[in-house]
């Protein structure tokens, strides 16, 4: 990360409900994110919460804008 300039701040988002996947604070943070990194966990849970939810659309918009996205384990698999 030092080679690309590091980062000025990091925001962690954690939610495990459909309401969380549509929460304005989550969507605003994703819209402002220069990069997104997703943690591991349960891929089926990611799909359940994100597939047809606003957070899924926000992540697709992030990728479409050419911004970096990555993850580990389930976070990587869900990409």
Protein traits:
single chain, 79 residues, mainly alpha, 2 strands, globular
Task: Write structural notes for this entry.
With 79 residues, the chain is mainly alpha-helical. Helix content is 41%, strand content 8%. The chain is built from 4 helices and 2 strands; from the N terminus they run H-E-H-H-E-H. The protein has helices spanning 24-32, 43-50, 54-64, 74-77; strands at 36-38, 69-71. A two-stranded parallel ribbon has the order 1-2. The longest helix is centred in the last third of the chain and has 11 residues, at 54-64. It is globular, with a radius of gyration of 12 Å.
Layout: helices, strands, pairs:
Layout lengths: L23 H9 L3 E3 L4 H8 L3 H11 L4 E3 L2 H4 L2
Parallel strand pairs: 1-2
Helix pairs in contact: 1-3
Quick structural summary:
The chain has 79 residues and is mainly alpha-helical. The protein is built from four helices and two strands.
Strand order within the widest beta sheet: 1-2
**Distance N terminus to C terminus?**
20 Å
Unreliable runs: none
Number of helices: 4
Shape: globular
Helix percent reads 40-55%
Beta-strand residue fraction: 5-15%
Mean pLDDT equals 87
Rg calculated over all Cα atoms: 12 Å
Structural class: mainly alpha
Total beta-strand segments: 2
N-to-C series of helices and strands: HEHHEH
> What is the makeup of the main sheet?
2 strands, parallel
């Amino acid at each position: 990360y030092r080679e690309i300039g590091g980062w000025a701040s990091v925001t962690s988002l954690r939610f495990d409900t459909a309401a969380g996947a549509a929460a304005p604070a989550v969507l605003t943070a994703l819209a402002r994110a220069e990069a997104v990194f997703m943690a591991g966990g349960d891929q089926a849970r990611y799909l359940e919460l994100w597939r047809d939810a606003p957070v899924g659309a926000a992540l697709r918009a992030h990728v479409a804008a050419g911004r970096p996205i990555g993850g580990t384990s389930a976070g990587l698999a869900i990409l």
